[in-house]
Amino acid sequence: MSSDSSTDNRGGQLAAINIAALVLATSVTALRCFVRIRLLRAFGLDDWLMVAAAASFAFYCSCSLAGITSGTGQHVADLSREANAEARKWWWFCYPSYAFTMMLTKMSITFFFRRVIVDRLHKWILIATAAITIISCTIFFFACIFQCWPVSYFWDKYSQTGTCIPDSVIIALAFLFSAINIITDFTFALMPAWVLSHLNMKLKTKVALCILMGLGCIASAAVVVRLPYMRLIASDDFLYDTVDVAIWSTVEQALAITAGGLATLQPLIKLIAYKLGLRSRPTLPTGYGDNIRMNGGSIAVKRSFTHRSELLMPGTDAQYGQMGLNLQPVAGEYSAVCYNTSQELLRLPTGETERKSSKDLERGGTAKGEESEKMPAAYLPNRK
């Protein structure tokens, strides 16, 4: 082999991208878990899905790094048959793990938005986007696994005979999958502005949420950059020519996981700002389903993105001291609304329910009748 071809190795470049992307994605996911478990005590299904996505991405990066040690990023002419087969085998493992990572990430974002969505039209858009994501990822997942038969024929064409789906079909599926990813990314990125415009929040909070939850567009940028390189999947010098496809696929997954995690970190940012003396002490929501004891009975706290709750006091500080309920909206998290112990809202913020008579409110009030007239007014969110 020539000295020029021996030094033309892009494996180191791909390895650096893999390591940097893995560190970024796992760090943001770890911070997300810290916020949800320690600060908010509200670890939900979207968090579990994102943790699973980060684990799948770690597996993807491990396979990619293993492939680099075998020959990914090098010319086929510089590799032995055994090294070429080993590198292609690790590349094959990257196919399904990529599809699995993207599906888990999109589903996590879907359940994250499910906490926000209240309008029926928004729900149908979210359901349709999630369904398209699941179908496209499933098709791509199985198409990549069974593109050759026997499966091992994808990487070992020397010691056995077999057949493979034409490269043109795989490229077409890759383009279709990329297009669907772009559409779903922009749907998830633009939906916050639409949804938040109907929520009762401060403008500053709305803007922060739109920016954080709209970071999914960045992942779409990686998909767009990758498109011109997709045709190289059919190259005879596969391990070298597809390095750019591998790089931008890694970047796409890392950005998707990072964008989904950053939208949940505002409580941590507020806490850090408080520790640095840059803001007053932050108040964080209590855990899901907590019961707060009051002199007039107890109330149950549930989480919702659709109502804004701030300092909620059943009476004066002199009478109740620290027994008030101190809540505030948190970007990317739940705010809180108050229910009585029968799980009915003390007062709903819609125009129709606000016009309910005091007699209707009393039926959903506290256990003690003499307190029922006070509590709805005392627990009303401070809507501006």
Automatic annotation (TrEMBL):
Record has Iron as a keyword: no
Transmembrane regions: 12-35, 47-70, 90-113, 125-149, 169-195, 207-225
Superkingdom classification of source: Eukaryota
Chain intervals with Basic and acidic residues compositional bias: 352-374
Mode of membrane association: Multi-pass membrane protein
Places the protein is found: Membrane
Protein name: Rhodopsin domain-containing protein
Protein's organism: Chaetomidium leptoderma
